[in-house]
Amino acid sequence: MEKVLMKGNEALAEAAIRSGCKHFFGYPITPQTEISAYMANKMPKIDGVFLQAESEVAAINMVLGAASAGVRAMTSSSSPGISLKQEGISYIIGSDIPCVIINVQRGGPGLGGIQTSQADYNQATKAPGHGDAHVIALAPATVQEMVELASEAFDLADIYRMPCMILADGALGQMMEPVSFDGMKKRETPEKTWATNGHGNKREHNITNSLFLKPEVLEKTVMERFERYKVIEENEVKYEKFMCDDADIILVAYGMTSRIAKNAIKQAREKGIKAGLLRPITLWPFPNKVLNELADTASHFLCVEMSMGQITDDVKLAIECKKTVDFYGRTGGMIPSPAEILEKIEKIAGGLK
Q1: DSSP secondary-structure letter at 76?
Q2: Could you tell me if residue 198 is inside a domain?
Q3: Is residue 154 a contact partner of residue 20, using CB atoms and an 8 Å limit?
Q4: CB of 118 closer than 8 Å to CB of 91
Q5: Are 341 and 262 within one domain?
Q6: Helix (H) or strand (E) holding 278
Q7: How buried is residue 2: exposed, middle or buried, by Cβ count under 10 Å (0-12/13-18/19+)?
Q8: Is position 169 within any domain?
């Protein structure tokens, strides 16, 4: 298996191209600008479209237009830019159009800073745009996983006719690791009979629309969409379990933070503390079932994030508050260290004795 050393942002962009993305619309913002730069260089060479829009608002609406014609389209941004895209994301959801959105998170709120963060969890999982709506949210933990989830994101978007967001962070986007593109999997996706791509008088016009003036029609459409969400929650949950089988203390962490948490868990095990990790890969749909099962054997949960604790409420709901859920995190671009997490684990373990 051939591997190449690549920066996370560039590896993700290359994986998107290999997944059939030939239409990219973006706007530069740190720490994801390398995605746009890579696409600007590569798209003309594959007869693709790269367009630096005049704003994030313009970029997401260009995605809506291109994706409605049935092509694989993508945009990328960082936290403030994703906020600007939210109206367009809601329009895309309301039109049942598949696309891929990349958020390489930075600290906030506001302009905040350009350092890594995980403070956009609630935005991605609870309110990606106005209305009753979801996007599938995937959280890679390595550069290799950024590659693999890029392919998965396009397939999931096409299968379920909805946006799929890759929620990365500044550290993953900027770091370099060896990656292979050999293991990218391709799922079977349905024919896009809904696309507005010309009909040659062989069918009725397809129309992209998110406006329903009759409330009963809008309600029916939203409810049908939520039936689709139930299928996703049943079939598309992804997670990693690490040393959970005998764990008294279960850490819940995702993305870059999960890698740091693993080091703390290994150190805890050396001290005789039975700790483990449940790493959600799909943030929506959330791995509720497996967490609930772990709550029957574990004594305590610890959420570790680069935020002020946004995943914590979802863990409490998942385990039905059967066990205590604590939180440790850093924010504003600060990264927790293994030593800090270990100290928290040891404090919890002391209380269990």
Answers
A1: E
A2: no
A3: yes
A4: no
A5: yes
A6: strand 275-280
A7: exposed
A8: yes
